[in-house]
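Chain X:
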Amino acid sequence: MAELKIVVSIKQVPDADDLRIDPVTNNLVREGVPAVINPPDYHAIEEAIRLKERFGGKTMVLTMGPGQAEVALREALAMGIDEAYLISDRAMAGADTWATSYTVAKAVQRLGGADIILFGRRAVDGETEQVGPQTGKWLGIPVVAYVREIRSIENGKAVVVRTTEFEEEVIEVPLPAVFTILETANKPRQPDILSLIKAKTAKVTVWNKDDIKAEPTKIGLAGSPTKVIKVSPPPKTRKPEIIDGKKDPEKAAEWFLNKIYESLKEAESSLKEYVKPKAKVKVNSEIWVYIDHIGDRINKASLEILSEARRIADLMDTSVAGVVIGGESVKGIINEVYEYGADKVYFAETKGYDRYDNEVYTKALAKLAKKYKPEGIFFPGTRAARELASTSAIEIDTGLIADCTNFDVDDKGVLLATRPDFGGKEMSTIVCPRHRPVMVTTRAGVFMPLPRMPGRTGELIKEEIEDLYSRLKVLEYKNIEKRNILTEADIVVGVGRGIKSPENIKKFEEFATALGGVLGVSKPLADMGWYPKDRQIGQTGTTIRPKVYIALGVSGAVQHLVGILSSRKIGAINLDQSAPIFDNCDFGVVGDIFEIVPKMMELIKKKGE
């Protein structure tokens, strides 16, 4: 085999820890905020270096950005990358993932191609997981996202382990190929001082749009199908009732506990049926929802977004359809899609491909979309659906808006999709003005499925997808039977830095159990290893939607707030009366959790006697 050629594409992002909201304008302050390598990209850099160490070859790093992006490239060189390339041109500013992935693909072609092209799993500024798969699609080469291990490379093929929330596959893929690397794949190395010094004077090749032969209509803001039309701080949707519990912790404990019980009772009695909104406009095309499934089981996230798509379709005075792709064994889920709100189901039959395969499912979805021309396609926030949305957007030639948490429709029938950016420190409202269908990925756990309507049916349109072929060969497969109890619990107790030490966690676990709930933690505690990472609540952890969320010693950083805002009710106890959590809860106590929680435990025990 010829010398292995490995390219890593990285991104610079503002350091989220230094971002802040201007208290006067409520806008995000970006001036003077340092840019850093997108944290997940370090794992892609590390994987490239490890591949070179194992199999030999040459490594190259590239990024698109202004001149100061050289700093990120030099950091990659210091880690051990051989060559660095900066794609810099004012015409490329403002690019969305469609235009960015096109630019990266043109740069890879300018390099003469590569055997392996690596990306980090996601971009932390907008939680997109799109550029890697989309670059592969532009280049016409296989894509495997969410790779936790590259096992072997030989005879022009790689064997990789792909891990999603629900399954793990060992896949053989011909090279060249694109892989996105999970953060669990490796631990990035720290460059030594000599390498850092050497990297400061290393050559960085700079190319503009003409050097990579990029078409002007496909780059930058002008070439981007999606546009940001509004940026705003996260909305305040609650009216907090806060009391001072420092003088009388016992009274505060009783008040707080009663609020928890009242909230649970209110949640139980709340309206559980769908109320159809009044139409704002009439559109001629349908709203579609891709139904992600594992064999004959629908992923819950698909039913969540089906309910929101139902609402948007009603606002547009049109119908909502589910899109089911697969073979014989998946036909059983069609009736379930009707029962959760779909008027119609498009069944793309892919014989022999009951499980998700990116190449086959991209072909199937694109065929349906090009033939029936929907207004929009909603995708649930699962890994497989995000990958499919990314490659399908290039195949269909349309825009894709990532990680949305809120939707509306304007009076012209344009879908307004809002997502949190920069760890939730601001909200961006994005549109896709010229391209149809508008495609969106959504965050799991934000929306609630409609009540199931047994026996409800609708129209079925079946398309048999012919000439099926995939370059991906699954060598091993297993389901991951791992439940996320945070998303299933009615009561979640979250603890933050205020618990002071890991030894204190057990006390709060016991409190959560006494309430019939489960314990979760803020990001700092998970990062410090005080509690399992899968119990982290927040944008980079788990988004929860319990009946009651109780924040104990949690300050309420925006990253955390993004993960809890869909909770029916939020209660908080914190010694700091200026903690942001008090602006984003329904009831709270300014007090000491080590005084108030034990008193609540006593009251719970008395209640149970």
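Chain Y:
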Amino acid sequence: MNGVIMPKNKISLFSGVMLALSSLIGSGWLFGSGTAARVAGPAAIISWVIGAAIMILIAFNYVELGTMFPESGGMSRFAQYSHGPLLGFLAAWANWVSLITLIPIEAVACVQYMAGWPWKWANWTANFMHDGAITTEGLLVVYVFMLVFTLINFWSVKVLTRFTSLVGVFKLVIPTLTIVTLIVVGFHPGNFGHSTATFMPNGTRGIFEAVTVSGIILSYDAFQTVINMAGEMVNPQKNIFRGVWISLTITAVIYIALQVAFIGAVDPTTLAKVGWQGINFSSPFADLAILLGLTWLSILLYMDAFVSPFGTGVTFVATSARTLAAMTRNGNIPAWLGRLNRRYMIPRFAMVADLVLAMVLVFFFRDWSKLATVVSVSTFVAYATGPVTAVSLRKMRPNFTRPFNSKALSWVAPLSFVLTSMVIYWAMWPTTVEVIFVVVLGLPIYAYYQVKYDHVPLRTQLKGSLWMLFYLVALSVLSYVGSKGFGGTGLIEYPYDFVVITILSLIVYRWAIASRIDGPDLKEAAKVNEDVVIDEQ
């Protein structure tokens, strides 16, 4: 039934928004503002605005696709509909890797925050960390958290939505309370600078750098939760659109306001001595609260430092499992991974597989920061297919039912493709090469199933995906020879590196549209789309 489940298990718009907010407001808000301020100074406010704009433009493409094909784990299917199985696999694999890795990342975040609890009765938690890495003792606690994340998802969508709705409300209340309290109690307008130089101490480059390295992009990344749960939403043709925009708008307002509150709350005397680069709090908002004598707020912040990543981890178990289950329908991984539990219509096998692989990942990579950048960029490798697919499907199947059909796609699609390239570049060398390795890691599995079943001729598959392979290699080369501010050798100086990336992106974008494949996968797309109706009310 194309991922459709029984009405009693359907997710309402409110629950969908809370589910998205539970993903969007994770561990990033507690550290993002402090890190961004060190990199960009007061201009970090602009970084958050840029990050929100980029994600809204990227989401624009996926809202059209999600409402056309309201199926669970849909983001693992869209690229295959327009460009065949190889590109579909590359996009789905990159997206799934980023999602599955977010499960241990959030568990590690919980444990790292616990290790820093300031209370005497919690001294035992200090043993969870040593020299910035999770210890063996802490790893066991990480595994317990990951198991709990999975169990909350294991029986019913109702249990998941009730839990995330409760956590989602908590996540909204604490940041809002923090913003209001810091602005009222300790706000210094002079911290925002008196000139362009003091507002942007590291120039415009610092603004762009902060977008990626400060966790800003990662903080906005989870809008896809609504897309991937589309098959389980009430009235998905309307609620996908509403859920994505409402959750992203609320999140953007909160993050931007948090950055304003953080900048204004820093002690001007300290700032005059060390500058923004010297403002380095281990727990930014909690430390500020303590310095301002707000003990009650610091306690709430330490609590939220546990609740926020916990809620995000639970949500990403749901999202990653549905993404893996959707990949089985492409015929490139074992079909049993996508089997649904008959009673709850939940992909339990996919959840167990995700849990085991996530445990392996965190065993080898115990540092949250090392995983975060690679994860966020691998997601953007997948996002590069969104605008290409949306435009290609308009050209191939203009008669498909499109509940969200905007003329703006003609300029939003190429612009969002260029911005996707920029985000990957801003991650700095050698992260781009690491992302290619993560993507290529899945190709042997894909090759095995292609040889076994001989789905589509190799020549056809390469036609639809060669542009992506070239694109990733070209971005890696540009990252290496690009400006030193972004980790390159400086052969191409800033801002000319941005010009080169823009030109490359527009050329590859046109190539990608021309590489569309009108093949058997479009017949599957038509079956999903035929049940979609446009409600005129």
